[in-house]
Automatic annotation (TrEMBL), chains A, B:
The keyword Transit peptide does not apply. It is found in: Cytoplasm. It comes from Siccirubricoccus deserti. InterPro entries: aa-tRNA-synth_II/BPL/LPL, HisRS-like_core, HisRS/HisZ, HisZ. Residues 18-321 form the Class II Histidinyl-tRNA synthetase (HisRS)-like catalytic core domain. It comes from the Bacteria. Pfam families: tRNA-synt_His. GO terms for cellular component: cytoplasm. This is ATP phosphoribosyltransferase regulatory subunit. HAMAP family: HisZ. Belongs to the class-II aminoacyl-tRNA synthetase family. HisZ subfamily. GO terms for molecular function: glycosyltransferase activity; histidine-tRNA ligase activity. Pathway: Amino-acid biosynthesis; L-histidine biosynthesis; L-histidine from 5-phospho-alpha-D-ribose 1-diphosphate: step 1/9. Required for the first step of histidine biosynthesis. May allow the feedback regulation of ATP phosphoribosyltransferase activity by histidine.
Length: 386, 386
């Protein structure tokens, strides 16, 4: 991810690991994509907020922000002499806005955002330390219809961006803990079971849940049930569950039914006992995958916002979406000699051309990477010129 | 600029001085404005780049970046153990990209950018410490037509954003130094003259330039000539100037003629001996002002880029432009009951409505700030309801 200067050994071209320049045409592609996603959110009533990149670390890392504390750059504010953080996630900032400046606005509140997030270290698989992030938060409703809405709006935004087909993976991060809690599994055994679930190690889960007693007997069944939502829901319906776990299962069924009612064609999978990586989610958690191997495009779910407000939301990763969406046709560039009348230039721009002006006799259409030149006042493709 | 929580004394609502949240509808307005400006730049052949928010401080503060060194937040990169800076200006980053990754691309190079810049301290008049910045850089041409182009493209972008009329102020930051240099004015007197010019103190300038000898005699004349470009150009033509100063005057006349040829209606003023605040400009420097008291909307001019490449550019300040541009009509919001068919919702969104779904029986059009409701499948304004 470092950037080698092509023709010098001086340092100006060197960037820190995980930080990079987006060049033409990728930078414009990303910006267009972000605004396409934001327009889809706005069409569903989500109103844009723009929190600052920096804020006091204690407010930035409150609530769900605690999950990214280790990944947050800190710096001293010379004005207040207090520590500030450079955001690693936007959701905690939106929660702060909802609880304070929009605290008196009637619920549910629908907010959306787009901006950059930074993190202290990349990983081997995801080396980037600056990422664009867009997303929606629906705050103040605990209805399954709210969870269904955020998943559907995210899928609609991806469709607007040209991602041909997505699939929605639903997990229930509180299900396994609820089962282990109800079974009164002792802490040491609980840790071993959690690790076995984490590894999806069916043999260990079966053996350990035998030790854990009859109330944990659902675990191997639910581990095996992960897959298309209908099968997983049937497995959930068929096992004996303690009341807290049953409520989680019923809620998942209601969310899936609400999604199905509005998007019958969406592919949905359900993994009832998966609980990795969603540390602050309290109900359903969502991941949207693109087609083929394009990977994870969006992630979200239900969480508890500040002041114990129920909330649900989705974060989309435009850099991943870019890899899954088709590249648009490049903007045609027409070379215009000095003295071309302004009205003619404006007409060309209105047709979608970039007008690239000659500034000296040395400028040529080829040098300026133009696709078109002016012949009798009309833009003519250069390759087709007679 | 701090943010008081409306209904609690807890800290979550408090932001560092000069950092703030943009709320609905301002956040969307700013984003739409930025993309409007960027679309105007793209229409003139400027291609978007997106440098990272953080980079090594030695590359961030090279070249014109030195001008903002004191205003740049620094933080340690734990990966490389080197200091990084959080950008206070985007121009130095674009210069780095032009010199390295785009070093082999034919010139002139037309690049544009949009993003956030941060600075360590605000001022009393401009307390913000995070500002959106957009701009264009035209690298590799020393033609007056290049300077004219960047001023005109910036004015065209402001017009596209709805700013009704702008005026262009041109200064020649190297003119006074060139005169003082040619007159061989001793350093102490030169400093006093510079301060008098800075204060526009005509009496002192007259007295001090008398002491400085005949070659400095142009200074009081040029100070008095500041104003509409035609008069200032006439004054420049009428005074005796040493060769270096004459070249600067001729170049200014050529730039103004090139602007006039393409935008005869643009109001242009010229202040030949003004040189404040443009420390790295080497030819003409530009400021674009909005109508009335809306103030400075854009600033730029000619500078020397990395590898001694001639360059010229403009930076636009969307927060200032927002104050000068008319506010668009708010997006109409239509309240849609649960179960409204998807096709009907899509049709409403295609008409420009935000569809705001009821999630529970408690949701009402008024509570969700809707302007419209559905009656017989059509959106009807709520205030006009029978």
């Amino acid at each position: 991810m470092t950037d080698d200067a092509p023709n010098s050994s001086t340092p100006p071209g060197l960037l820190p690991a995980g930080l990079m320049d987006l060049l033409p045409p990728e930078a414009e592609r990303e910006a267009v994509l972000v605004e396409t996603l934001m327009a889809a959110f706005a069409g569903h009533g989500y109103e844009r907020v723009k929190p600052p990149l920096l804020e006091f670390e204690d407010s930035l890392l409150a609530g769900s922000g605690a999950a990214v504390a280790e990944q947050t750059f800190r710096l001293m504010d010379p004005v207040s002499q207090r520590m500030m953080g450079l955001r690693a996630d936007t959701t905690p900032q939106v929660a702060r806005i909802a609880a304070t400046r929009l605290g008196l606005q009637p619920r549910p509140l629908r907010l959306c955002y787009a901006g950059q997030v930074l993190r202290v270290r990349g990983t081997q698989l995801a080396p980037e330390r600056q990422l664009p992030q867009t997303g929606i938060e629906l705050i103040g409703s605990d209805a399954p219809a709210a969870d269904a809405e955020v998943a559907l709006v995210a899928a609609a935004a991806l469709a607007a961006a040209g991602v041909p087909s997505v699939s929605l993976d639903i997990t229930l991060p509180t299900m396994a803990p609820a089962l282990l809690e109800a079974a009164e599994v002792p802490p040491a055994l609980r840790q071993r079971l959690a690790r076995a679930l984490d590894r999806k190690d069916a043999a260990s889960v079966a053996a350990l849940s035998g030790e854990a007693g009859p109330l944990a007997a659902a675990l191997p069944v639910l581990l095996a049930a992960a897959g298309p939502a209908d099968g997983a829901l049937a497995a959930l319906a068929g096992v004996e569950l303690p009341p807290a776990a049953r409520a989680i299962a019923d809620n998942a069924a209601a969310v899936i039914a609400a999604i199905r009612a509005r998007a019958p064609g969406l592919r949905i999978t359900l993994d009832p006992v998966e609980f990795r990586g969603f540390r602050y989610h309290v109900g359903v958690a969502f991941t949207l995958y693109g087609p083929g191997t394009t990977g994870e495009l969006a992630r979200g779910g239900r969480y508890m916002s500040l002041n114990e407000e129920p909330a649900t939301g989705m974060s989309l990763y435009p850099d991943a979406v870019l890899r899954a969406a088709p590249a648009p046709a490049p903007r045609p560039r027409v070379f215009v000699p000095a003295g071309t009348p302004e009205a003619a230039l404006q007409a060309l721009r209105a047709q979608g051309f970039a007008t690239v002006a000659a500034l000296s006799a040395a400028d040529s259409p080829k040098g300026l990477r133009c696709s078109h030149r002016l012949v009798d006042g009309r833009a003519v493709p250069i390759s087709k010129e007679g």
